[in-house]
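Example 219.
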Amino acid sequence: MAGTTPEDEREDAPYDATPYLPARGGLPAHRRAAAECRGCPLHADATGTVYGRGEAGARMMLVGEQPGDQEDREGVPFVGPAGRLLFRALAEAGIDEADLYVTNAVKHFKFTREGTGKRRIHKAPNLRETLACRPWLLAELRLIHPELIVTLGATAGRALLGPDFRVGADRGVPRPLPGAGDGTRVVATVHPSAVLRARRREEMYAGLVADLRTAAEAL
Ligand code: URA
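Predicted structure in complex with uracil:
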């Protein structure tokens, strides 16, 4: 997984959020419990848990990687530069924000500090951290029960479609959510941060909009 270092993978005891999940309750109960999650070490340096946003009746769920710097400070997913690009692309694809539930595969911001330590630089979560946080994502799936899920980038794709997922090969095609057996489908696409970093940004943005249109048509 991108961002994984040998140090990250050396320890073999799994991290796991499961003990922190509430035994019952809806989104508000889960949101409250997630704020106390200590299932992996990422909570230690983050400002707080960034839980999903949207209503339980949403037909479409978007899954990103992890909150960024701004999301960590505001406690809401996709409110920074990647979010602004994402919501512009969603509007171009004809997807109404009101129909969406938006969340991340990992619910704490992972970062390193640069130079004098003021700037926090995003660091991709590793497999242990992603798997540790997966119970929160699966609980959101159960509570929202979306008809269609859009995964943004590799981490979200691997969290829901398995370790062999590759954005380049697997994007833009509606497919059944593995293990769901209830007609829930997934469309994978690129992460909006990758679009922001791309040399051929216009081309990559157009690809993101096209995949989102495919998702909208699959609903
Ligand atoms: N990138 C993500 O994957 N999620 C966010 O919430 C913000 C940036």
